[in-house]
Amino acid sequence: MAKTTRNQSDSFAAAPDLFSQSWGLPPIVRDWFLSRNWAPRAHQLDMLEADRAGKSALLIAPTGAGKTLSGFLPSICDLAETPHEGLHTLYISPLKALAVDVARNLINPIEEMGLHARVETRTGDTPSSRRQRQRFDPPHILMTTPEQLALMLSHQEAPKLFGNIKRVVLDELHALALSKRGDLLALGLARLGTLCPDLKVSALSATVAHPEMLRDWIAAPCPQREVAMVTHQGGAKPQLSILASDDRVPWAGHSAQYAVPDLLNIIKDNGTSLLFVNTRSQAELLFQSLWELNEDSLPIALHHGSLDVEQRRKVEAAMVAGKLRAVVCTSTLDLGIDWGDVDLVMQIGAPKGSSRLLQRIGRANHRLDEPSRAILVPANRFEVLECEAAVEAAEEGAQDSEDPQPGGLDVLAQHILGMACSDPLDADAQYEETLRAWPYRELSRDLFDRVIEFVATGGYALKAYERYARLRKTADGTWRISHPKVAQQYRLNVGTIVEEPMLKVRLVRSKAHKRGATTGPIGRGGRVLGEMEEYFLSQLMPGDTFLFGGEMVAFEAIRDNEAYVSRSYNNNPKIPSYMGGKFPLSTYLAERVRATLADPTSWKVLPDQVREWLSLQRDVSLLPGKESLLVETFPKADKYFMICYPFEGRLAHQTLGMLLTRRLERDRAKPLGFVASEYALAIWCATDIGHQFKSGRLSLDELFSEDMLGDDLEDWLDESSLMRRTFRNCAIISGLIERRHPGKEKTGRQMTMSSDLIYNVLYEHEPDHILMQATRRDAARGLLDIERLGHCLKRIKRHIIHQKLDRISPLAVPVMLEIGKEPIFGEGRESVLVEAAEELMREATGQ
Amino acid sequence: MTSAAVRQKQEPVMLSFGGQDFVPLLSGALYWPSQNALLVADLHLEKMSSFAKSRQFLPPYDTKATLAKLERDLTQTGASRVFSLGDSFHRDEGTTTLLPHDRELVTSFVAHYDWIWIAGNHDPSAHDLGGHCCDELFMDGLTLSHEPDARFAPQIAGHLHPGARIRINGRSTKRPCFVFDEARLIMPSYGVSTGNLNVLNPAFKPVINKDEMRIFAIGRDQIYPVSAKYLVKG
């Protein structure tokens, strides 16, 4: 295969039989292929054929299949055959970096063909003068993001700009479709379908469990167009293995410290490796441990979302230039940007879902015909099981499935305001159009009308705000914005990504290291390491140490909008972790893990130490069944423990823990606390809970009955800070409260505070308000995993097996080790007050 | 990891200040038995609706919620007098934007109770809702005013919305609180639409002596006296 640059050679096959065929391409396109000794791939021609047959198309292909260029081949051919005035193709990607990357890869072939076609990008970084110009003088092909599409659609000239458009190309649709950004995009597409009924939509997606769902998604805005499904199977199967370390796999923990020497050896033996971890803190820890042992000074870099953009760009550039041997990274590198040659992917810690694993493996080697290589590195014994399940799933090409949820009402509110900014809004027509956005296909007219009311005057039962209305109904029955400022407000608020309030982290010289100065201002002007969540930083004490940007730092102070840290020479971080990017175990993998556990004949693939552990569990207690729930009880250190093994992920277990302790408290079993892991839940009580189950005073079936998801859940939700955070997101997206803008707005914490207060008031006085409905839907889905818990409770109904033990079981060891290990941030905690008051009482009474 | 703690119940806490005994309430009010009076500060009525003019339609229920809180406290304590220590309204115009049922409730309050509105920086003007409007109140040797002022002692004031972040063994919680020293007691803000400011903020420095600082933090089911050594910033 002739190779010039990787991108192109991988995107097109070598021409098998020179000059013998034209593949139905226009001459300049065909000649371009021939001049390079390439041939278009079959799926690229299939996409072209679909387009020529007047169909929309969905291309499902693994990473590296020349997917992006398959999306554009129909546009290139059409432009080569028929001159076109105005915007021809709109390309939408989930990442602005991806839009820029793809534009670069498209401009070269177009120039080499001598094709008259202008390609431009439009992202948040595009200068406003150019964005302005693009609205009146658009390129032929415009690369942009869902947010920019929403902005363009909110302008008056949208009908003119998009009226003659031929194609929309949606890249990485699997990453967008089921999110709120997907909702926004679907609404934008529905509007495009109205402005331009001739539109064809092409979508590119990685392999997914339910391609027919994506097909319906792209078919919705232009129902008269058939959708062709084009599937590209990919070349060789990936080669997957699990790290076989001579060291013991630990019982608990997520850092895989034991494997660091092995990892270094593997890095040494390969070209460039990507080391994927699941959280930023794991990335930090691993990066540091690698460097501690990196005697050969192999160039190993760190890449995660909290790092300073410039630093990330540097790492990316070094990657592309082939200067790095390894990068420790998080999901920021999941999506399809081409950073260069990757020989090996290592997944540290269990991958949590087979789809994510397949995506990550796809990063190794973008050459289709050679197998990708990946090594999974379990961080603890349970993860060994999970890794085995993931490998099996990946080898079968099995995908996790995520259930689609109805479109967000907050996103709809934002969109409706945008549409009213563009043109007076006819409610009937807008409703019809909204139904053509796939996530909203079942939206009731009543709910839709309530969203309009919300946008107009807040949607309260009281008509308190009529005179300040944002939208007014005019004599002709249409809704118009009441003032041009409303459009300005809208444009500042566009988008569905609401960040946690972040602070810049700046490295300064420590007070303690400054000679002669023990007080006075901390030295300013150090370099910025990146950004971190304010709620984490605001709870640190000066001197607290943690890992950030690959360095051990000590917290100094928060000044204005920056957190000052200094270099620390301490070896162990005092604060073990910070949040961000934890994934729950996918249902699909959880099922496989349960199946493996229940069936000892399947253990032969497991390492000896894990097999011994499970055998021991079988001998002294029971193995968790495939469909049943094992509950163990035992006394330990004057407390009584109850451990259950639902394997439903930490979030679902935390919710379960909150609800069970509530019930146990009501049953006077005196629960003292609980801890949740990915696999199990441990609750400890002051009374002998095992005895109470045995004697029948407590019933396990009643304890775990599904009705806990009713009243108990409602009660807990009221107090839950998760609910408040979800509300804040809905309030911002829907435009109820304003988004923070750098240097302009109040600080993030004040905004959180005020949204909490709004939540409280609304909860008490209008709990059925449209935004409360939106919040409950989101909370049930994203944060609490309630649906999953519901399925679990249903599954185990009358299948709960109680095992009363004298002491801790082998399987319980990992979750017991979690107790007291990680502090939790941001929760209101009454026990802190109790302790503080007790201490004061002791002081006061002289004890 | 999330862990749950079991609640404990205790007897109501008393607060002695300026030679008088008070009962701090979970609502943030202070009941003064010898005067049979309820003290509240910073109601900030009509705060949410004040955003409407910039087309931010926050739920117009905060006034109703704050008044309902007040009604509960009045019923529970059996107080016959109310001293509202300033910023009763989020802005002077608030007295005109009251929704009908909120206005009715305020009217019935001032008819039934001996009601004093002390002026605050948010609501400096006197109004005609009923009750008495004044700048300061002197009573039983105490000065009741909106802003803490080092010239008066002993003084009870509001204005600063004190809150305490308490940290023990690496875990922390932030709660509104009563903060006082020998000379001054600063009440937490009462309105449901108000936030709070950490007592370690420099704003408290001129008016509360840090070495004598005492904190009564508002918990879920009771008031907790907390040692100042557990206070942290943030």
UniProtKB/TrEMBL annotation, chain A:
Residues 48-226 form the Helicase ATP-binding domain. Residues 259-405 form the Helicase C-terminal domain. InterPro entries: ATP-dep_Helicase, DEAD/DEAH_box_helicase_dom, DEXH_lig_assoc, Helicase_ATP-bd, Helicase_C-like, Lhr-like, Lhr-like_DEAD/DEAH_assoc, Lhr_WH_dom. The keyword Lyase does not apply. It holds the Pfam family Helicase_C. PROSITE patterns: HELICASE_ATP_BIND_1 (PS51192), HELICASE_CTER (PS51194). Belongs to the Lhr helicase family. Lhr-Core subfamily. This is ATP-dependent Lhr-like helicase. It comes from Maritalea mobilis.
From TrEMBL, chain B:
InterPro entries: Metallo-depent_PP-like, PdeM-like, Pesterase_MJ0037-like. It comes from the Bacteria. NCBIfam families: P_estr_lig_assc (TIGR04123). PANTHER family: BLR1149 PROTEIN (PTHR39323). This is Putative phosphoesterase. It comes from Maritalea mobilis. The lineage of its organism: Bacteria, Pseudomonadati, Pseudomonadota, Alphaproteobacteria, Hyphomicrobiales.
